[in-house]
Specification:
Length: 359
């Protein structure tokens, strides 16, 4: 690989969102094998029907959407789980829904307060119920979805990232690499413009532990099992359909942990596993059926937590600890762990939890 292509790859990687650094999980991800889910594509989204009436919506164009969305088509209406990263993305999803249903969106949900899951809330009229945990509403109302370390890490760096891309483009001669970079640059510029339209909008319906909707013949449960990816993670459980929609409590690989409660997350997942389900629709990545992937994540988190606690007790800095932690034992379950080292933001967060300084 040439130096130019290596530089391009670094810039492209820098443009990833909250699933940045997520290693792919094991298994086939529940793809469209014979007898499996069917997939259709609209202008901006690809809809995979996981079970009848329940879809996984994933971005399928250059529109920045950030996260997945869950779509539950009921007898008379639709529930959307996670409103996406911007008003433009939210409106595109609502428009693309016409490719699979003509029923109106009457319910939306925020699985947590991160910007890529909640900054489309403003497009919904007052009669649409936007459902979340109480802590998620409080976080968005307090301005945490568009401020703080995680937001600055993934969004605050965009102007500088655009400058880097422009500077790199000026020096590139390889036609294919240049075209790839131009597309990335245009997506970054478009998304940055869309950011200016965001008005963080708190949900208008909240739960503390559980809320249930009965929509025709479908039961829809919203559960808070404890702190995990954030302090207010809600999962959507469809008991008759045997599906869970998890936000970033579960992703297709290693989730972002910069606002998480890693030790409590493991316990929260134990409570989640008590549900009876076949399909997992995660916050990032493809739907999957392999429940053992939850076990693998718990084992990774226990190891990360225990090593972090030990190094913290030795007076090691978070930065040095991140370099020294060895998680290669989990490489078979999470690709991309070729050598010792842990995500520095995850380790810093654990140190803040241990010091009692975490938000």
């Amino acid at each position: 690989m040439t130096g130019r292509r290596q530089q391009l790859r670094r810039l492209l990687f820098a443009g990833a969102w909250l699933c940045a650094g997520c290693a792919p999980g094991g298994g086939d991800g529940g793809g469209a094998e014979a007898g499996g889910p069917t997939t259709s594509e609209a202008a901006h989204f690809e809809f995979t029907e996981v079970v009848p009436g329940v879809y996984h919506a994933q971005g399928a164009s250059d529109l920045v959407v950030g996260s997945n969305a869950g779509v539950v088509v009921n007898e008379a209406d639709v529930l959307l789980v996670d409103s996406h990263i911007s008003p433009a993305a939210a409106n595109a999803l609502i428009e693309d829904l016409r490719s699979i249903t003509d029923k109106p969106v009457r319910y939306a949900a925020n699985t947590h307060w991160h910007f890529d899951h909640a900054h489309g809330n403003q497009v919904y009229p007052p009669e649409v119920e936007i459902i979340s945990h109480e802590a998620t509403r409080a976080a968005i109302a307090a301005g945490r979805s568009n401020s703080g370390r995680s937001y600055e890490l993934f969004v605050g760096s965009i102007p500088r990232r655009i400058e880097q891309l422009e500077a790199t483009l000026d020096t590139m001669t390889d036609a294919a690499a240049r075209a790839e970079l131009e597309a990335t640059l245009e997506a970054q510029r478009t998304y940055y413009a869309q950011l200016q339209e965001v008005i963080p909008t708190p949900p208008n319906t909240t739960l503390s532990e559980r809320l249930t909707l009965f929509k025709g013949g479908r039961e829809i449960q919203f559960h808070f099992f404890g702190r995990a990816h954030t302090e207010g993670d809600v999962i959507v459980y469809l008991p008759n359909d045997r599906v869970i929609i998890t936000g970033d409590m579960l992703t297709a690989g290693l989730p972002y942990m910069g606002d998480g409660y890693v030790n409590e997350w493991v316990e929260t997942l134990d409570r989640l596993k008590a549900l009876d389900f076949d399909w997992i629709i995660p916050g990032h990545g493809e739907p999957y059926r392999e429940r053992e992937r939850i076990d693998h994540l718990q084992a990774y988190m226990r190891d990360l937590w225990d090593q972090s606690v030990a190094l913290h007790g030795q007076g090691v800095s978070a930065e040095e600890a991140a370099a020294r932690i060895d998680l290669t034992a989990h490489a078979d379950n999470f690709g991309g762990i070729p050598s010792p080292g842990a995500n520095p933001v995850a380790v810093l967060r654990i140190f803040e939890l241990l010091d009692g300084t975490a938000n």
